[in-house]
Amino acid sequence: MAVTSAAREPFASTPAASRGFNLGRLAGRGVTYVILIAFLVIFLLPFIWIWSSAFKTSQEIGRNPFALPTELRWENLVEAWTVGHFSEYMLNSAIYCAAIVAGSVALACLAGYGLSMLPLPGRDSVLVLFLLGLTVPFQSVMIPMYYLLRDLNILETYWAFILPGIAIRLPFGIFLMRGFFRGLPPELGDAARTDGANEWGVFRQVMLPLSWPGLATLIVFQFMWAWNEFAMPLIFVQRDELRPVSLGTMFFFGRFTADRGMIAAGVTISMIPVIILYLLLQRRFIEGITAGALKS
Amino acid sequence: MAGTTLDGPFIAPSSSPVARSWRRYRAGIFFVLPALILYLLFMVYPFFRSIYFSLTSWNGVTAVKEWVGLANYRELIGDRLFWLSLQHTIIWVIVGTIAPIVIGMLLAILLWRRPKGFTLFRTFFFMPQVLSTVVIGIVWNWIYNPIFGILNEALDAVGLEDISRGWLGDPDVALYAVLVAAIWATIGFVFVILLAGLQNVSKDLLEAATIDGANVWQRFWNVTVPQLAGVLNVVIALLLIGGFSVFDVVFVMTGGGPANATEVLATYTYKEAFTQNNVGYASALAVVITVISLIASVTFIRLRERQEA
Q1: Where are the domain boundaries for CATH 1.10.3720.10 in chain B?
Q2: Closest Cα of chain A to B151: distance in Å?
Q3: Sign of the dihedral through C-alpha A253, A257, A262, A268
């Protein structure tokens, strides 16, 4: 924190800081807060509106959108959960997320380690092949992917989202984990190797435990992606019983358009898991975004 | 013979070059192969297959894919809807890149000195970024609703009821209405990256500029921005790549309508591929999106190289 206290006042203690200047700075601070609070309202108001609507009847929502609900009606949430199929969508999303996160994190971790710490013929080409995946939009692969899944007979099953989901998240995972492993001193492995450990042992007992911070960031990111991904399940999984929350919410919206309280409840349910995760692990989200974008 | 025994390990049959390189590389292969197989099957193979499909007139059903050469691409050139989608996509990329950067930069600068409430502001500015596009689309669909949407209510309240309308149903404004929702959701991402970039901007230089009498704007433009150039390049490139292939938010909010007013390349491709079953033609569209995106990312890599050099 010593660093940030210095960062707090970059303009402090300049000889030019006269009394009049201070007054200007006070006004400046006022303007700063006005702008910041205006944006806070812009970012928060839609959420507050939706969340409070989840507890209202449609008539109440029509009357005054920002009035707090007169009473906490849980009916909308209960109905969205049961009649609106959100219980199924949630379970499906849990299955998809568990499989995609586990698969993509494990494979990216292994490959990221191999591509940074172990000798491999054509290592750079393999790496470039993976990293090109970061720049390729989903549209470049989606059509043949659909027919591939059809030919493999796994269209309209959980696998139709899980397998391509893992594959499409490998570039980001490998990129992140390789960057992380490269930051570890390779001599650590040499010590274990002279003690007779094989490469798997070095990875498992020395490197993997040290890579936990990188892994945690990766898990958070792959989870967020898998929970929110829309296009893949839209195209590959059309049966309602197999829909994840993201897609289910959209069809739910189409089905109950007139029932505003119900829609608000569905939208609220579908964002609860990521919002909770975000508020708990905020620093990981923000660090992960920054690391993903800035380090390479 | 004594000499050869000493050399034994080196000429033993098990140490043929093949066996030696196998022993040297097997660990690496073992670590990389699982990911590589899945990636080749589900990413690399479909990527090249897209190009092949785009040279056929396949409809997704027949066993034979009839080779038509560049006919699909020739058809694209005469396709009014293609040019319209491209035009919308380009508007999307330009506005959707500039607006989040301008607003994200403003917020990052205001929070640079970590004023009171820093964490609170950062938490909520970034929050839309963790939500699915479906949620964002539905929330904004409500905001724009002509009957109960808060945008029209707010306009009525300040006496601007003349401009209130069904924002997503009006072909003149629908694209921009969707864009605003997307920008709202993207600001947090840009803001967080720029905020991180600002941590590396030299405060001494800023202080020196202040002493030299530079005003706020001069300090920002001549001292801060040049030091942020690298970070800005990355942000711009990411927004460009995302913009050219934008799909989710448009599909959820308008589905490309009304009357194709919000049709972008990706929604057009989706419809051609999965509702019209024009697989060959849709693949040609997909290849066009790919090429444009790749040009954007190559430019990005160039910029990064220049910055590192």
Answers
A1: 76-308
A2: 11
A3: positive
pLDDT tens, position by position, A3-14: 343 444 444 444
Report the topology of domain A84-255.
MetI-like fold (1.10.3720)
The reply to whether residue A110 touches residue B244, judged by beta carbons under 8 angstroms, is no
- pLDDT tens, B115-163? 888 999 999 999 998 899 999 999 999 899 888 888 888 888 888 887 8
A181 in Cβ contact with A119 (< 8 Å): no
Give B-chain residues touching A198 at CB under 8 angstroms.
27
Q: Write the ipTM.
A: 0.86
| CATH class of domain segment(s) B76-308 | mainly alpha
Site from A135, A262, A279 to mutate, B interface, most B CB atoms within 10 angstroms: A135
What are the residue ranges spanned by the domains of chain A? 18-74, 84-255
Out of B125, B128, B245, closest to residue A139 by CB: B245
CA distances from B36 to A288, B206, B209, B298 (A): 24, 48, 52, 23
Chain A residues inside the 8 Å CB shell of B121: 36, 39-40
